[in-house]
Amino acid sequence: LLDFSKLVPSIGGEVMASFFGLGGGGLKVDIIFDAVPNNPNIVPMTHSPSWRLRKNPFWRVGTQILPTNEYGGPLLLVYHGDQDVAGRVILSLPPGKKADHLGIKVQFIGRIDMGHGVHEGRPHYDFISLSKELSPPGTVYQSSTEIPFLFKGMDKEHESYTGRNVSVRYFVKVLVERKFLPPITKEADVWVQHIDTPPATNEAIKMEVGIEDCLHIEFEYQQKAYHLQDVILGKIHFLLVRIKIKHMELAVIRRETSGEGVAALAGHPSHQQHQSQSQNIFTETQTLVKYEIMDGAPVKGEVIPVRLSLEGIPADLTPTYTAINNRFSVRYFLNLVLVDEEDRRYFKQQEIVLWRRVLG
């Protein structure tokens, strides 16, 4: 007998199935989300947010062009946490072809993915998993078939997030079941964000730090909580200077802590990585931006102003996340560093809280 699978080794199984009428017949599956114009709860995104830093400090200027899919719609949409998700499944076939299937269903999944290589055990956890049948078993004849879907009233409690060791992902998955063959699958992501309310109290940060009989400084920031487009304003007062300071830097640091049971560490910002690893908890510290705010030796009584725009940071900022699903936290810190003429470094960290004012 002639072995048809040897005719095209790389896709032999598909050739055999199509020869006997069992394959998808070249069936292509696409997912398109309905972008409602002027809906403040659904906003198109210019890029997919990530933990990575941008090398170009003017990257926001270059991302104002809205990328689109092959159907002319936005490539990625941001949904408010309580917004319904609606769209269409598009089935495409070459002219004159048909495709038999054993049913078509669509799923909406919310997933915390910890399968980035450092975490052991369960690679991901689905906190939302909904499924709907779109079509019973049958045959697709048309060259293009559209099937609408709607997921209504879902509580999308966590924001989408792409971190170094953990991510939160929402996506729609379509499965076209086939006889004797794996299903044809297609996934499409949606991005979820929550608009926060301003904190009820937002007191100024004031701290005094120094070295006895050598250095005494007082720094203050106007507030502790900032929205993602805010500007950090503050002052640094030199009360005593007996060492030769060469320059001073201010950095914004992001700290991602991930692993089972991070809630127990929420109040311990100084937790060291080697201690965390023994409990299968990992900490990634990332310097998002660093500015030199003083060059030269200060004198007693000098005041250095601080002004730092969060929108100018070449990274995708997120709100502060605390023990999300008891699996990860994301926190932000201001790191003030003084360097003397012998290159000794004196630093002080202060946590700040970030919150989201608008989608996008």
Give the strand tally: 22
The whole-number mean of residue pLDDT values reads 83
Briefly note the structural class of the backbone: mainly beta
Helical coverage, percent range = under 10%
Spell the H/E element sequence: HEEHEEEEEEEEEEEEEEEHEEEEE
Shape: elongated
Strand composition percent: over 45%
Radius of gyration: 27 Å
| Count of runs of 4 or more consecutive helical residues | 3
In this structure, how is the largest beta sheet organized?
Answer: 7 strands, mixed
Low-confidence stretches: 1-22, 268-278
How far apart lie the N and C ends? Answer: 61 Å
Describe the protein in words.
With 360 residues, this protein is mainly β. The chain has 3 helices and 22 strands. Strands 2, 3, 6, 7, 10, 11 and 12 form a 7-stranded mixed beta sheet that branches. Strands 15, 17, 18, 20, 21 and 22 form a 6-stranded mixed beta sheet that branches. A 4-stranded antiparallel beta sheet has the order 13-14-16-19, with no helix packed on it. It is elongated.
Describe the SSE topology.
Blueprint: H1 12-19, E1 28-33, E2 42-44, H2 59-62, E3 77-80, E4 85-92, E5 99-101, E6 104-113, E7 124-135, E8 138-140, E9 144-151, E10 161-162, E11 167-178, E12 181-193, E13 205-211, E14 215-221, E15 225-227, E16 231-241, E17 245-258, H3 273-277, E18 282-295, E19 303-309, E20 321-324, E21 328-340, E22 345-355
Parallel strand pairs: 3-12, 15-22
Antiparallel strand pairs: 1-4, 2-3, 4-9, 5-8, 6-7, 6-11, 10-11, 11-12, 13-14, 14-16, 16-19, 17-18, 17-21, 20-21, 21-22
